[in-house]
Structures are given as structure tokens and as C-alpha cells.
Amino acid sequence: MISSTANSKVKRLAALVQKAKMRREEQLFVVEGVRMFREAPVPWIREVYVSEAFLGKLEGEAGDQKARDIRERLKKCRCEVLADVVFQKVSDTQTPQGVLCVLAMPHYELAEYVDRWMTDSQKAPLLVLLEDLQDPGNLGTILRGGEGGGVDGVIMTRQTVDIFNPKVIRATMGSIYRVPFFVTENMGDTIDFLKKSGVTVYAAHLEGSVDYDQPDYALPTAFLIGNEGGGLRRETAARAGQYIKIPMLGQVESLNAAAAATILMYEAARQRRRKV
To answer: With contact defined as beta carbons under 8 Å apart, do 30 and 17 qualify?
Structure first.
């Protein structure tokens, strides 16, 4: 058991949790909590740490099937035990559940996925494009909502909040394991690539002349969502095939990025269900 916060493993673990630069250099990220541990793809798992209290709780629930499953997975992963005070030091939550994993970052190639999506006769691709989102909760919620709405992939600019930020990870509720995501250096070029591939790109925009529920999203579709504060850059929005708007009542001008994206994703899902 590791009982000192001065331990080199503990210092490295804390740095992976806190520093995006460290995560990029090592191509690793950290997830925390029982659900995130249970759902983590086995090939991604590099290290597992549990608190002393968590281990004791598992031993006290010997007859519980869920506890048995967790213990079995811990044996396969060869976890290390941290003293409770040490685990608290590296945890990103106020009330840690007592288990965290170090995972390898997944890598997806956009061109490969677009080719696969466009040749799938069963389903037209549905994508979300994000320009410079800064709120971790928004990004995580969009991934989670995207999985529920049948989104095939999320593409974001390099300036978007780090998808491996612990707050983003927590907000995805496991969807980060199942929704492919891509980082683009130039969103304009990516939009042009998608359009040439047969995907219609819709920009969620205050200047939209068409209500969001009017276009046909059963066809290959991508929704373009802008930064929480400034919205889409004019030059980025201009690359889209069409501007769409979500009508607002009262004195509300617009919704936040996650709410707007969710409405659009689920409108597409609704249309697609009706055409099955």
C-alpha cells in the first residue's frame, strides 16, 4: 500500500489529473469512479488505483454480485492500494468513490471514419462540430447526449477545452468510451472535407433563416456549434451549407452550447426514427 503523498507514483498521478500538458506528453488520462472503471475498455487500461476504504468495503460485500464483479476486474488489472489520505490527494472529487484508472488515449482517423460512415447503407452519419467550446460540462454533456441521440462522432477545434479534463470525463458518464471524437487544426477545412464527402453542415446561428425542425436530417448531417461566449466565427459559419435557428420565446436570445446541441441531435434522432 502506498501511504505517502510524496511517493513518485502519487505525484505523477496527481499531475495527470491536473495538467493537460502531462496528459498529452504521456498520451494518458485518468478516469475516476466505479462506473467509469467498470465500463473502461480493457485495452485502454494501463493502471488502476483503489483506496484502502474502498477495498475494505468490497470485502464487506462478499455476497453482492456487483462487488464480486468489481473484485474480479481488479484482480485482472493488478491494482495498487492507496491510503485514504493519499487517494484524496489525487482525486478530483470532493467525495471520491475510491477507484481510479489511468487509461491510454484513443486515437481516431477522421478520413477513415467518414469513408466508413458514407458507405454504410443502413445509416447516414450524424456528426457534431464544436468550435472553441470552453466549458467542460458542456463538452461532456454533448458527448453523453450524442451517444443517446445516435451521433456517430464529435469533431472539435484544437482550442476547445481538453476532452481529457477530469470534469469533461465525469460529465460524459462513460460516453467518452463509445463516441469517436476528433480534433481538427482547421475547422473550415474540415467542413469543406465533410461537404465534399456528401455531408450537409448546418450552423446553429442567430441569423438562421430556417427553424431547426425544417431540414431533412435523415440525410448525412453535421451540426456546427460555436463558443459559449461569442458563438461561431463568421468565417467558420460561412462554410456551412445552411444557417438554422432554434426559435426563442420571452427575452431569451439563445441557449447554451450543450442545450442547443442536444435539441438538434434529438430532432435528427426523431426524424430518423420516423423514417425507419
So the answer is: yes
